[in-house]
Write a structure and sequence with these properties.
The protein folds into three domains: about 15-50; about 50-80; about 80-119. The chain is built from five helices and no strands. It has helices at about 15-40, 45, 50-75, 85-100, 105-119. Helix 4 (about 85-100) runs antiparallel to helix 5.
């Protein structure tokens, strides 16, 4: 004889609240930070503007590209902490070559080649 067991599908209210907080917690935290900045800054229109959002997104693209590269490295089984310094070196070399008078396309090519050579 095999005893039948029924799964316990009841979820206590504390577990349900904890589950929702785990899922929505980062978004709630982001909204709290935005609210604090809106209250602290004298002009909320400057903070919550499309220009400011565009600047923030443009600045985080570099970090996102590095994070994608690190994700691929970690998934493949290795870990490499030199990615940040390689990105910084490529950026500095690109800026120096633009500053020396080369065209931006040529400077970008030199920067990518330097990053590939180091990486």
């Amino acid at each position: 004889m095999v005893a039948e067991t029924k799964p316990n599908w009841t979820i206590s209210s504390s577990n349900l609240i904890r589950t929702w907080l785990n899922r929505l917690g980062p978004f709630i935290g982001l909204l709290i930070v935005i609210g604090i900045f809106v209250l602290v800054i004298e002009s909320p229109g400057r903070y919550l503007s499309t220009t400011n959002l565009r600047v923030i997104l443009a600045q985080t693209v570099i970090v996102a590209i590095g994070a994608i590269g690190m994700t691929v490295i970690i998934i493949s089984g290795g870990i490499d902490l030199s990615v940040g310094s390689s990105i910084a070196l490529s950026g500095v070399i690109t800026a120096l070559t633009i500053n020396s008078g080369l065209s931006p396309v040529m400077a970008l090519t030199v920067g990518v080649l330097a990053g590939g050579l180091v990486g």
